[in-house]
Structures are given as structure tokens and as C-alpha cells.
Amino acid sequence: MSTSGKVIKCKAAVAWEVGKPLSIEEIEVAPPKSHEVRVKIIATGICGTDEHVLTGSFPKVEYPVIPGHEGAGIVESIGEGVTCVKPGDKVIPLCLPQCGECNSCLKWKTNCCLQTHLCNPQNLMLDKTSRFTFKGKQIHHFLWISTFSEYTVMPDSTVVRIDDAAPLDKVCLFGCGFSTGYGAAINTAKVTPGSTCAIFGLGGVGLSVVMGCQAAGASRIIGIDINKEKFGKAKELGATECLDPQDYKKPIQEVLVEMTGHGVDYAFEVVGCLDTLTAALASCHMGCGVCVMVGVPPLDSLLSFDPLLLFTGRTLKGSFIGGWKMKDAIPQLVSSYMEGKLKTDVLITHTLSFSEIEEGFNLFHAGKSIRIVLLF
Fold first, then answer.
1. Which ranges constitute the DSSP H helices of the chain?
2. With contact defined as beta carbons under 8 Å apart, do 151 and 77 qualify?
3. Rounded CA gap, 179 and 301, in Å?
4. Residue 360 to residue 36: CA distance in whole angstroms
5. pTM of the entire predicted model
6. Splitting the chain (376 residues) into consecutive groups of 10 residues, what average pLDDT does each group show?
């Protein structure tokens, strides 16, 4: 029986308020309105950004909210005016929209669509209402896509069709983690062949940076983390050496400068810690090193460092979801995966059922996972 045009009841993980664990509830999901798409989520990853939502450290979120932003699914129904997808299509929801009409979308230099949450909060749909309710109570969206729900509704600017043969439990990583890290190396830093790179933080995103640096032809890729259990995976993916800052009596940036003789060509901060960001910047070559901020810093934090670090020629820049225009890039990345050019499966260390989401977050907190995928 068709569900098109009807309210669907399904399971979702709701964050009722800051500091409280997710609660799996049976919610109601309304049909899509004009230029909206309702998607049945098949698989969704657990990302550090979802943890920021639970702790209240992600900006402009309104509670109660359904987190999740790294998913893949199948279009269930579409609203009036939708032409980019049709029911039955395999899709990836986009945590960064590509409206195709704003000043940013029309510029080739940036992927920062002005519909993004950082410009205009995505807690409600464009008509300022929610498609989620629980016993009549409004539940907010997260980044418009809320992939911690079996069914979710999003604007058509935040969804893209992918290869019909793509395994959704694997390619869901392209919705955030892999694309963010890989693109930081390829698009933002533009790592050059023969260069030296340092990656601060070897989680799923950091390891994706490692993969990007290797693909770009870097000759020396130095992974840095306080969890040595991640070193084996990092070397498997292309790291030439790994360092634990706790093993040294001097700051890690000084160690890196001594190791390389001049500082690294490219440094990537993937932790979201201001002290680590300053260390990454200081580890770069003083005249031409590039430091890329990939990790999301704490809410309302301010960065303070010696301006002479930049005066001699270093560059500090940010990377927003890897610099990809996502509607254009995600289908191409998935195609590369299908052709065997991107070995992202190795990032998935745990596959759990959606009902085990609490266990998934426990593994995340314990540092026992790289990427966890939840299946509905």
C-alpha cells in the first residue's frame, strides 16, 4: 500500500534537551510539501558533530531535535516541483545544501551555500514548520536532514541521487565524514606531489585526510593522535609514520619542525581543539606552510595565537565539508567508490542496528571505533 501523501509513524532518536542521552521514540513524519523529499533512511553513520548536538556545543540547534546527518536511503515520495529525484531513487542527504541560486552557489570558488545552517538555521523547513511530531509535540530537524529517523523530510536542495547499485550501508560515509576529510586534502589544501603532511586526529575524518594526502601524491604523511590503537589503520591507509604527543617532552609542533627540518608543507587539524589548531599552524613551514582547520571548534570559542606565525607566510584556512559542491560531487565520489578507486570500507569498524545507537555512542566515546554505521 502506498504511503505517499500520508503521515508515517516510525522510529527516531530524539535529543530532548542538552546533556540528556538520545531516546528512541515512535514519531510521526508528515508528507513532503512543495520542493521537499521524504526519504526512507537505510543506513546512517555516527559522527562527532552528532555528539556536539547532544552536548549543546553545536550552534543554533533547537531542542527537541532529531540529530544525524551522515546517511543514505531511498526516496519514498516527493512534493510538488521536485525534479532532481523520484520515488525509488537511492539518495544521499546533504548536510550542506546546494541550492544552485544563491551568490555562493553561483561562484566556483566556494561551496558555502547561503542556505547552510551557519547562515540560516535549519531547525525547521523553509516554511518555518516541522515535518516531525511526537504525540502532537513539534520536533526540530537537524541540518534539514535528521538521519537518525527511519523516515525524514528535507528540501530538494539537500538530497542527491546516486548509483542504483551503490551499497547504502557503505556509501553513507560520503554524506559527511569521508568527503570532509578527503576533500580537505584534495580541494582545500590542494596537496602537491612529494609534499610533507601532518594530520592531527586520526578518527574517521582524519583518516580520510590521510587517504586524500596519499591520493595527491604526498611523500611523507605523519599521523598524530593520543590513541595509539589508531596507528595501524592510519598506516594501512597511507600514513608513513605516526606520533603520540604524550611520548615527547617538548610540544609536538617542535617535534615536527625538527623531524622535517623546516616544518610540514600541509597540516590538518581534525580534532576541533584550539590548542591543537595552534600547534598545527606552528608545525607548518614558516614561509609557505598551509594549515587547514577541519575539526569544528567549541561553541563560542575564540582563537588566540602569535600573529607572527602568519607574518612570515604561513596560511590558515578552513575547510567546509571538504570544499565540495555536494550535489555535483557526491554522485561522482560514489561512482569512484563503485569503480574501486576509493577504499572507504576500511573506515567502518562497527555495523549495528539502529536500536543499538546507545552502544554506538559508547564505542565512539571509548575511542574503540573509526566509523559506526547504524542500520534501520
1. 48-55, 168-171, 177-183, 204-215, 231-237, 252-260, 274-282, 308-311, 326-338, 357-365
2. no
3. 25
4. 30
5. 0.96
6. 91 97 97 98 96 93 98 98 98 97 92 94 96 97 98 98 98 98 98 98 97 98 96 96 97 97 97 96 97 91 92 96 97 98 96 98 94 97
